[in-house]
Amino acid sequence: MKIKQAFFAILAVFFILAINSSTVAVNTRDIDAVLKKSVIDDQDKKVIDVFLSEAVTELVKTRDFTSIAKVRAVILSKKSTQSQYAQQFSESAYTHIKAGFEQAQTLKTEERTTNVNINLLILIDGMQDLRLTDLAMGMLKDENMVIRYWAVHCLTNPAIVQQLNAGITSNNEPATTIAEQLKEVVESSKPEIIVHIARFAANINIPEGEQLLLQVADDRIKKYADWTVIHEFYDIILLKLLESKIPLSSQGMGIPLPTTSLSKPAIARRFAQLYSYTIQRFIKGQDILNDTQKQHLSSVLIEIEEKCISRLLGVPQVTIRRAIERDNMTALSDEHNRLLGDETSTGQLPSKFGFDYSTTPNGPKRTAPIPLPERPQKPVTE
Question: What is the pTM of this model?
Answer without folding.
Answer: 0.88
